[in-house]
Amino acid sequence: MIIHQIFFNIFTSLCLIYLNINIYVVTCQCLDNQQSLLLHLKDNLTFNPATSKKLVQWKQSSDCCQWSGVTCSMGRVIGLDLSEEFLSGGLNNSSLFNLQYLQNLNLAHNDFNSSVPFKFDMLKNLKILNLSNAGFYGQIPAQISHLTNLTTLDLSTSLTSRNILKLQKPNIGVFLQNLKNITELYLDGVRVSAKGKEWCDAVSAFQKLKVLSMSACNISGPIDSSLATLQGLSVIRLNLNNISSQVPEFFANFSNLNILELSSCGLSGRFPKGIFQLQTVSVLDISNNLDLHGVLPNFRQHAVLHTMNLSNTNFSGKLPGSISNLKQLSILDLYNCQFIETVPTLMSELTQLVHLDLSYNKFVGPIPSLKMAKNLKYLSLLHNELNGTISSTHFEGLENVIIINLGDNFLNGKIPMSLFVLPSLQELTLSENGFDGPLDELPSVASSQLQLIDLSNNKLQGPIPASLFLLEGLRFLQLSANKFNGTIRLDMIQRLKNLHTLGLSSNDLSVNITSNNDHDFPRLEYILLGSCKLGKFPGFLRNQSQLHALDLTNNQIQGIIPNWIWRFDSLVYLNLSNNFLTNMEGPFEDLNSNLYILDLHSNHLSGSIPTFTKYAVHLDYSSNKFSIAPLDMDKYIPFVYFLSLSNNSFQGKIHDAFCSFSYLRLLDLSYNSFNESIPICLMEKNSILRVLNLAGNKLQGYISDTISSSCNLRFFSLNGNHLSGVIPNSLANCQSLQFLNLGNNQFSDRFPCFLWNISTLRVLILRSNKLNDAIACSHNTSNWEMLHIVDLASNNFTGKLPGPLLRSWTKMIGYETESHEVYGDLFFDMFDNHDNMRYSNLLSVINKFLVLKLQKLLATQPYTVADHIFAYYVTSNQFGGRYLDSVTVVVKDQARTYIKIPTIFTSLDLSSNHFQGPIPEELASLRALKVLNLSHNAFSGHIPSSIGNLTNVESLDLSNNNLRGEIPPELASIHTLGYLDLSYNHLWGKIPTGAQMQTFESRYFDGNEGLCGLPLKDCTNGEVDQHSPPTRPVKEMDGSIDWNFLSVELGLIFGIGTVILSLLLFERWRLLYWEVVDNLLYRVVPQLDFVYEDQNGQRYHSSSRKSHHPPPRTTHPPPQATHPLAIHPHPPASHPHTPASHPHTSPGATRNPHEPPPHPRESPPHLPREPTATPTSHPFPTTPSSHPTPPPPPSRLHSSPPLTLKLEKANIDKSLLSGSDKRKAFRQAVVNTLEWQLFRSFKIYRCGEAL
């Protein structure tokens, strides 16, 4: 029984096995109609049998279920994968849509180049449809939306595809409304064109959705909260859309989230920290969102993060040490963020790292050790602030590293040779550092894999190691801008058969260009031999037809530029500047130049500028002798953004053609002979223009007040022209302006307060104009935060210096927070983010057509080669993206020109104006000032002791003012002071000792009679000269009285008062007093004559009184009734010697410039004068008989009738009238004195010409 049971079980098992085998056979056997449909499909498709891996195997003799790409169930085709077969042609009439049992269809990565077939709705059982990058274009048919069983739909296309799919009719909402079972949706590259709420509502209907991939769909934000219901999401890809909103906080609630990619979405605001804490996230890419900021949290242990890309965002703060908890981290990209402080040493525990990019941040300190990251292949710490040396064991054990880039830091010391022997290393970049010393010979040259070496812009010296020229695989060698010396022979370069880039510029090298065989030379594409003492054009260049860049600057090359140099079809960069070139060899008519950058500055070229460079973006023809430019040059060079014609021989009017450039960002026409007015269009069209320099010409007229409201100027100079009128108010539209120089013109205006609204202004120069009035700006409350050079000298500004204005110059105040700023030279960028400019950013800089053309020209080499060369152009400013200009300031009484303007340099020049009042205390708060010049003004009061706060001032000029008092001792405590001028003030006391005070020349203290002490005369017993003013003003005596001084004053006042009182009270004394004065004056000044007139009109000459001759009779009309003390006016102007005006008779009279001005306390009061009859002319007597003798006056003057004393200036001999100025001044002083003394008691006639 047991045996039977065992046999039964064995038999049953065998039957089941046989049955299963039969079922399998039935399942795998392709049904005839299915095979027929597939063969018909193959016959209708266009493909290349040589490249096909699937269709080429489909044959009638074999079972179709065994064909590659075919999946069957029960003999029916349920899966078809024809991806990457390079299929072409249409599918609308294909038998494909008769495969009714299809559940999975993959046509990805083909080239159908047709619209999407509209018969997909026939495939009712489809669950997975993949048409990605299949070459379809146009509107996605609505029939696909009828496939209600779909769980995966992939219609994505790549960004580089020529074929674009659209989802607009129907829109995304209508298209997706029936696809309720979708779990994976891929619409990358499809033009959805929907706003935030629209596409979010459409997608949120898929509650089973796990994958949402809609990169580059032309959708916008903000991301709607309806997406928060999709808790099953594991993949979110929304790259390259214009979301332009914040990242929603609810993303941190997606507990299944594995991949989050939001790159290039215009995101802003703070990134949610909670997303970093999700334990399920393995890929996080939020790169290229410049306005997105945040900080990295403390990472938890056991995180699965594999890729973290935060590049080109505004993340900041420290890199936390807990990053070492990300044990699975393979890719960490923090390029171009704002991270600071040191790189954590625990980074060495990230053993899975393959790609580490920390470039373009602000990391400081030493480079961390990464010895444990054995898998590391890519390391970039470019453009940080890392310092210290590199030890020989620093990168020990990194056997897989291929690329090391430590460029643009502050690393120093010797370069360890251990770097050159890393077994897999192919690219080594150490440029832009401070490495010094000689470069040792390379060990193990034969086994080296090095292809790229960039050591440019360091301090390396000595000869270039010969072993460098033995690296057979070397393709890129850049040693420019060091201190290498010695001689390089061409045969050394000829050994490097694979070399395409050679950079030796800006060293102390001599390159011997003599060669026996110019043809046996590597095919170089980039040749940088500037400052290599060539002396002539190297002969081997003729055969380098594939050249992309050629730099021969500063090589003492003379003569003619050969024609063959223009005929390199792929040459995009040519620099022949700083040579002695005189002409260019033609012809130029048939040239097909592709030059983008042409630099010919500082030669002796003349005639017409070259215009055959139709693709040029940078043209520098400055410092030559060019004199001709075509009037329609915008048609010859339409793409130019940098155009410098400075310091040439151009003249005439600035033509309107300069306004027609569409991309121009810099226009420099300075130091030519252009005249007439500035074209109005040039002032209007400046929304792109950033630098406009018209200085040093002969321009005249007004500046048009039509500056565009979208003005984007950074630099604007009209210095040294003949411009007049007012400064246009529309200049305030240039809200990014940093440098404004309107000096040395004829502007007549008030201080331009409207410029106060330009917070970016750094340099303001208005010197040598006709600007006037006060410089106070009462209605402005903002600050000039960046202003550090102000020059208002040689104008007509008046009034006091306003404290609020000085306080607004916060850059000059120099807060402590600025002490850590890295100072350099003032420059003006042609493009935003110049420091971060890379070859990949060119699309944002120049025309798209030029970028595509350039990429084709440079496609012969990898991207990294062009990136390195471009980085060198940017660093050395040969790309022209940065403009540096000079400024001239008066330092130490001499005009000093700074070829480069240091950002730390601060200067304030208010000299040669009419400022008055005390020096304000606010001026002493400008602690960052290097130069302060207040000379030739009318400042008064004391020098404030707070001036000692100017601890950085190097030049201080307070000369030619009305300053008084003692020199404050705090001035002697300024140790930086190298120039001090206090001459011609009213200072007194002892010159304080300390610092450099006693080293200044005595002339800088001249004109201050009360000063003593070195470098002037010694002070006697510590007291000043007796002629000096008191060392302490009276108002500072604090109640004490100097009786010695007071007694002198009282005695003088009492004596004078007694005399004056006696004359007023006693008439006899008064008459005797005037008789004595009359006789005295007559003897001292015999040319003067007096006429006494009684009430009857009888006159008596004082001179006749002495000789007893009667005076002539004259008839006068009765005098008008006047006050007995009134002063009569001048005689009528008909008198031959009566002047038209006199300084004391008319407020508007003009004073002789040679006369001393009347002191205000000596001028007689301007009382009205009585009109008189025209007096009889009396020629000046040469003998006593020249006129009748008048009768003698009464013997007792007091008994005669009341007399009116007339002071008459008789006719004077012409020889006396033409006498010296000194004699005239003396006579005038006498007349003034008589008028002042007599006007209180007598009527005075001043007859005749004023002296």
UniProtKB/TrEMBL annotation:
This is Leucine-rich repeat-containing N-terminal plant-type domain-containing protein. Residues 1152-1169 have a biased composition (Basic and acidic residues). It comes from the Eukaryota. Residues 32-73 form the Leucine-rich repeat-containing N-terminal plant-type domain. It is a single-pass type I membrane protein. GO terms for cellular component: plasma membrane. It is found in: Cell membrane. Residues 1135-1147, 1170-1186 have a biased composition (Low complexity). Residues 1099-1202 are annotated as: Disordered. Keywords: Cell membrane, Glycoprotein, Leucine-rich repeat, Membrane, Receptor, Repeat, Signal, Transmembrane, Transmembrane helix.
